[in-house]
Design a protein that fits this description.
By secondary structure, this protein is α/β, with parallel strands linked by helices. The protein has one domain: TIM Barrel (Alpha-Beta Barrel), CATH 3.20.20. It has 13 helices and eleven strands. The strands form two sheets. An eight-stranded parallel beta sheet has the order 1-9-8-6-5-4-3-2. Strands 7-11-10 form a three-stranded antiparallel beta sheet, with no helix packed on it. The longest helix has 15 residues. It is globular and about 50 Å long.
Length: 322
């Protein structure tokens, strides 16, 4: 299939909804569902609901997590640091642990549903790729791009450091390569369609990405205030206010970009341990979100989040077109 110019970022963890994905596809873009943190059964239900809302192609993004050694002592120290947060909220911390986010079961789901595009993030395992047909790799370096090309990727989602949410690096790192630099580097050595991701919020950003070698862009933060998005109310308030973004491991143990808030400032030295820290802090974030406290939740957003507007998704698609 031809890749539409405007692709919806997966937005796993709440903002992703069938209504949002369908609205983007119906507007001539490519709507994505974020499968991260869902059960396989819930993913199947969301795909079915999206199919009820659109006849256009859709995509699903899957977490491809590979277990790596973590510093258990550092995780334990961080858990002790968070006890004050837990007591204040009246909850118990979660159990830090590794899990693979039901990758194999979710691959079964997308195959059964004949999803038109599947993208993988955090790695690009050969065993998973062999099972999929039109599969995209999320890459953050020339080395990752070359590896994904060799493994059979049909397209590359090239993610610059400006992107909101988790960095798509195959190994958690502090890489800070800007999107346009990365696009030019990868387009010079890999002959695949490139989908630009990171800080895409205006038609000018889209035009610049195309000039640097992309055939499409993937925008996420631009859609967070759309009525179709499942963005929480405290997150919406933070997006409507004006602040700065930064990378943090405080919420999940993997570098991710969000609007700087109290939790990020109070916990600057979280260890690299994903998804262990994600599970550890999940009860804290759920309680803070229920209380409407934007200071205690992850406020994922890209560097250009000030451009996000509370408009229907179809309007946002049109405003992004160069």
């Amino acid at each position: 299939m031809t890749i539409p110019e405007i692709v919806l970022a997966p937005l796993a963890g709440g903002p992703s909804t069938p209504e949002l994905a369908a609205a983007v596809s119906n507007a001539g873009g490519l709507g994505f569902l974020g499968a991260g943190y869902l059960t396989a059964d819930e993913l199947a239900r969301r795909i079915e609901r999206t199919r009820e809302l659109t006849d256009a192609p859709i995509g699903v993004n899957l977490f491809a997590l590979e277990e790596a050694p973590v510093d258990d002592a550092a995780v334990a120290r961080y858990a002790e640091e968070l006890q004050t947060e837990a007591r204040a909220l009246g909850v118990q911390l979660g159990e830090p642990r590794f899990d693979d986010d039901e990758l194999e079961a979710k691959i079964d789901v997308v195959l059964d549903a004949r999803v038109e595009v599947v993208s993988l993030v955090f790695s690009f395992p050969a065993a998973a790729v062999r099972r999929l047909e039109n599969v995209w790799a999320t890459v953050t370096s020339v080395d990752e791009a070359r590896a994904a090309h060799g493994l059979g990727a049909r397209a590359l989602v090239v993610q610059g450091t400006e992107a909101g949410g988790h960095r798509g690096t195959w190994l958690d790192s502090d890489d800070d390569t800007k999107l346009l630099v990365l696009l030019r580097e990868i387009s010079a050595v890999v002959d695949l369609p490139l989908v630009a991701a990171g800080g895409i919020a205006t038609s000018a950003h889209v035009a610049a990405a195309f000039e640097a070698g992309a055939v499409a862009v993937q925008a996420g933060t631009a859609f967070l205030l759309a009525p179709e998005a499942g963005t929480s109310e405290p997150h919406r308030r933070a997006l409507a206010a004006r602040g700065e973004t930064s990378l943090t491991r405080a919420f999940t143990g993997r570098n991710a970009r969000g609007i700087v808030n109290r939790f990020m400032r109070d916990h600057p030295y979280a260890p690299s341990a994903y998804p262990h820290i994600h599970h550890l802090t999940a009860p804290l974030r759920a309680a803070a979100r229920a209380a409407g406290d934007e200071g205690g939740i992850n406020l994922w957003a890209g560097v250009n989040y000030a451009h996000a507007e509370a408009r229907p998704a179809a309007e946002i698609v049109e405003r992004l077109r160069p």
